[in-house]
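Students often ask why we bother encoding 3D structure as a string. The short answer is that it lets us treat folding as translation between two languages. Here is a chain of 85 residues written in the first language.
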Amino acid sequence: MPLRKPASARTIRIDEEALQLLTERMLPSESFSSAIKRLLPPAFDMKAILKKTAKNPISDEFAAEVLAARDRQRASGGARRRKAS
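And here it is in the second language, the structure alphabet:
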């Protein structure tokens, strides 16, 4: 009888560059799953942000600066720019 993978196991495809970046950042004896979870930023929680800002609102000017900074970052390719081939 062939061995079966646990129901939670999945196969993913990543390119060589992504594999190299991941393995360079893995801790000794760390699994790929653990490394990915440790290295990924936490999910953006809009409800939590709104709850916090409702207690201590920010000014319209500050909000505009934050949005402008976000737009500048997106326009420049974000925090992680890929090297041109």
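Translate back mentally: The longest helix spans residues 60-75. Keep this in mind for the problem set.
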